[in-house]
Amino acid sequence: MKEIKAYQCDSCNRIYKTKAAMKKHESRCFLNPDNKACWMCKYREIDIDDDCSDFNFCAKLDKSVKSAAKDMEKQYFQKQDSIMNCEHFEL
Fold it and tell me: Distance between CA 37 and CA 86 in Å, rounded?
């Protein structure tokens, strides 16, 4: 076994071998409050649709995150059901 130096994300605890890889990850980590993503916002609620699938709902905008992204012309990240750098973000 060989000991290595690694870098761990302060927000999600993911580990990378290089500092550059960690900086790239932290700049798009949905759990990093600096990125103002839905996952960390106080207005995020989880709702259930007709198919019993859960989705993120923005209580501030009173709509799904997907609809909010379209209205605000923000990139929507489907896998995470989130947007980043939202002007309505609050911890």
Answer: 7
Q: Cβ neighbours of residue 25 under 8 Å, at least 6 residues apart?
A: 9, 14, 16
Which of the 8 DSSP states describes residue 53? -
pLDDT in tens, 15-51: 999 999 999 999 999 999 999 999 999 999 998 888 7
Backbone phi, then psi, for 83, in 5-degree steps? -125, 165
* Phi, psi values for residue 77, rounded to 5°: -100, 100
83, 76 contact by CB (below 8 A)? yes
Q: Where are the domains of the chain?
A: 1-35, 36-91
DSSP three-state, residue 65: helix
Distance CA 54, CA 73 (A): 23
